[in-house]
# Entry
Amino acid sequence: MKKLLSVLLLIQFIACLSVSAQQAREAILLNNGWKFAYGHAGDMKKDFTHGTEYFTYFAKAKSFNQNQGPSSEQFNDSTWQTVNLPHDWVVDLPFSKEASHSHGYKTVGWKYPETSVGWYRRKFYIPEKDLGKHISVRFDGIFRNAQVFCNGFYLGHEPSGYATQVYDLTEYLNYGGENLLTVRVDASTEEGWYYEGAGIYRDVWLDKMSQVHVAPFGTFVATHIDPSYKTADVNIEVCLANKGLEAAGCKVVNRILDATGKEVVRTQESSTTLASKQEEVKLLQSATMDNIHLWDLEHPYLYTLYTDVYVGEKLVDTYTTSFGIRNIEFNPQKGFLLNGCPVKLKGTNLHQDHAGVGTGIPDRLWKYRIEKMKSMGSNAIRTSHNPVSPAMLDLCDRMGMLVIEENRLMGINKEHVDLLERMIKRDRNHPCIILWSIGNEEWALEGNERGLRITQSMSEYVHQLDSTRLTTQGTAGGRVSLFGVDVKGYNYLRQNPIDEYHREHPDWYAPVGSEETSGCGTRNVYYTDSLRGWMAPINRTAEDDNRIVNAMARGWQFYHERPWLAGLFYWTGLDYRGEPNPMLYPATGSQFGIFDYCGFPKDEAFYLKSWWTDESVLHLSPHWNLSGHEGDSIRVWAYSNCDEVELFVNGKNLGRKPMPADGYIEWKTVYRPGALMAKGYKGGKKIMVEKIETTGKAARILMEPYNTTLKADGQDIAIVDLTLKDEKNREVPDAMNEMTVTLTGPATILGYGNGDPGFKETERPVNGEKTFRIKAFAGKAQVIIRSLEGQKGTVQLEVSGTGLKKATQQFITD
# Structure
């Protein structure tokens, strides 16, 4: 009886801690210091004997004294590689003609069991004072089919590579001691038909909070703006959880602070009682805000909601939510409206990989990529074809970029609906998101009633989770399932009779061109070379009625001329690895990006910049190094927003031509080395001159750092663009020189690329070497360096090559 009483008193004490101790919520980034090694997808013994023990992790809560594998605390990982997240192990794998076409011929997948499973281990300390808190681990993304363990205990698994995963660690932890997280990742099966990488490729967080707390992603802020656009009603939904062993009476107050940190609204208290181990109790509050600041593209103003949770009179949890106040509408006559004003969506589709890092994209690299899109006037991104990194959405909120966030796979079973729900609950407070896409090009569903039923059901699930946004779906010409979504998404003019639909359904919400062809090819290449994986721009080669058709211009003209269309999203903003259609090996990446895999612009970026920005633009193509053999017939194009453009070829005037709206100008000439010069006129006055010349050989390296300071946190990066120039300081657009990169100081080479769609080089030093050989492609290359945790000082990057003047750049880590 005494023993039972002691146990009951201990339980009561722990429960008392959970409801009475004032605990600060804490989110600790666990990205640094992981151990990594390859397992095996086809042989359990080679997979560190995982699952072969007498009592497996499925048989017992913990395979006590049986488990010899990586989930055991006794396992020796001293020979494993140390890595920092985000990490994509496929970056380090070789290419092979026999590997998956869709995943860029990298040796990962079911054919390669020895490189398709990866193991991660990470030790962390939990102080004894944390006893009584609720502690969980949050993975923003693991590709894919992840099994997660803590101190040898199996926590669960997630098949999808795009879902955020949250696991409760509280009862499994050693308080006042060392703890172990183990993750087994199996990328044997592809989830998409494009490069997806493999590994823990997004952030990992250790979350500490009171036993009574706001549930993960447990707030939803919905705003309704007065017609005057001066006030707004704010409806706040809060989901509370009690992980303690006793019921808890609590109250909630919500505070809204403006961008300066000033409190502008405080709600009335709401009280409730949570039963022990209660997962969710929903509370609703509302308030009115005066003198509001609107979130828009030019001024993306953000407020912060602080949700305070009290047990008795003690504050036990504060949960923060960033949100913006804006009104969105897809009007059948006026197109897309933002805060009552028509805004044509000038969008691109983006995958989530980049040269040198694969899918393991650091935050600063996301910022770099978004800025590249904005530089040509783009105002919207479609996250093709999966939920995106939370860090990317945070940046879009702050930078004023609209987003269509896309669900990975259509379906109405428990697993698929759960993934849809998790995406929406995680991301519905982001003002940048304007539509939820439930799926893309589901050919088995688009043309039949079964597909319509699934689409309608998924749309209804979305409406129940978020009544403030509409649904869409990317359709490839199917005429049935599109009736199940609110905003029709058309993938390509040639596949969808858009004008016919409008005549028959003029009351439809303004549709979007969810995909439209960019018509791009290999940067600075104007001929197809299948042996090197290079493709001429379709814009310069596709014919319709015996004339060249610029597919990019045709798409923009179509959507721009019709005010009832919301806008379009070009396929794609940047090149991506995998799906190199219509090319085959040795091509390893798609070439339809308006920018290449490193973010270097192709000619087509200047077409869009001409018509998507107010900046004066005059761009000539092709470059005069790359135009063919002497005497060849050549078409010279000018992308410009000048009223007129006059062209001179080697001093000969080929005429002054007017620029058609949303168009371009073409001259026919004969190629001879020398120079092209164009003069741009507005209002009859010359305002610009553009000149491109046949250059000499590369003689020097221009080093252009995106940033020169880094945080010494093992996470921050510096992006360095390299451009080869000749003796006269002219860019050499056909240079392919090999260079040596040497790094000194407290940083490491994270990766490199050059934009070559036939790239098959080593992308980064495997063992942390600080000297690395790289090649330029079409005159350019890119190096990404990353800081080392806790190591401050000066970093120097030196790049040299035979016949090239050496270039150096210093960086400061602090």
In short: Confidence is low (pLDDT under 50) at residues 1-22. Residues 31-205 form a domain with the Jelly Rolls fold (CATH 2.60.120.260). Residues 2-20 form the longest helix (19 residues). The radius of gyration is 28 Å.
